[in-house]
Design goal:
261 residues, mainly alpha, 75% helix, single chain, two-stranded antiparallel sheet
Length: 261
């Protein structure tokens, strides 16, 4: 029985880590596309006046699936504590960095002439350079990459710290408070760290702050709306491990995490 529980626990960590890593990596890759949240919902542009700048909710496509990363991170935090979150966060950051290195190298490969010729016209009859399109889509500025990776690590460390601080106060109750509260704090940090590293000196501080506030408003709303999904995930895991075992594993994770606070 103990061996079976350990197998389930290890399997659970692998599954949660896989979901976390995959979505974080995809979010980084698709982040180059900017979309209009208002247009997606059929609304008019927000036209918010922030520090004298007119701001709409123009967000990176990665923002669509980052909530999955938030939820998975909180579930790992709940059942595997600070060591578990740190382990998968560092691994994910290394693999994202590795992915960017591979992309950088592939951008330097000389394109085959027939590939350029076969893809030189789109469905509307417009001419374009396929190699240029590839580099434009997959290529990201060095400062953006460094900013994104820095914000990811700092945000994750802040998330696990706040989560466990709240866990110490709430015990196993009030999951919504520690999950949503830690996400709101970490995403506030993430929203501004990436922008200041990527665009300091290019944009004014006021413009960077305005963009950060707009992004954070979106993340704040999404964090609140998705809070029930934390309970759904918690319920699925409790059924998988057995409620009594799940609670004991959660308590052990919290106790182990307190050593790092």
């Amino acid at each position: 029985m103990v061996l079976d529980l350990e197998h389930k626990k290890h399997r659970l960590f692998i599954i949660l880590s896989g979901i976390f890593l995959t979505n974080a990596l995809i979010a980084e890759m698709i982040g180059v596309k900017i979309f209009s949240a208002e247009a997606m919902l059929g609304l008019e542009p927000a036209n918010l006046d922030i520090f004298g700048f007119t701001m709409d909710f123009n967000l990176t496509a990665g923002a669509v699936i980052w909530p999955v990363v938030f939820i998975t991170s909180d579930l790992i935090n709940e059942y595997f504590g600070q060591p578990g979150v740190k382990r998968i966060s560092y691994l994910t950051a290394l693999l994202i960095a590795y992915s960017f290195v591979v992309i950088f190298l592939t951008m330097r490969l000389p394109p085959a002439a027939w590939w350029l010729e076969a893809n030189k016209i789109d469905n509307a009859g417009n001419f374009f350079n396929m190699d240029f399109a590839f580099n434009k889509i997959f290529g990201q500025g060095q400062r953006i990459i460094i900013g994104s990776l820095s914000a990811f690590i700092i945000g994750q460390l802040a998330d696990v710290w706040v989560f466990q601080k709240l866990r110490k106060v709430t015990g196993h109750k009030m999951l919504w408070l520690r999950a949503t509260g830690s996400t709101l704090v970490s995403q506030f940090i993430d929203s501004f760290v990436v922008l200041f590293i990527a665009f300091y000196g290019t944009f004014s501080n006021g413009q960077i702050a305005a963009i950060g506030i707009t992004n954070y408003i979106y993340k704040f709303i999404i964090a609140i709306v998705l809070t029930p999904l934390i309970y759904v995930g918690h319920s699925i895991i409790d059924k998988y491990l057995g409620k009594e075992h799940a609670q004991r594993i959660s308590e052990e994770a919290a106790h182990q995490s307190q050593k790092f606070l």
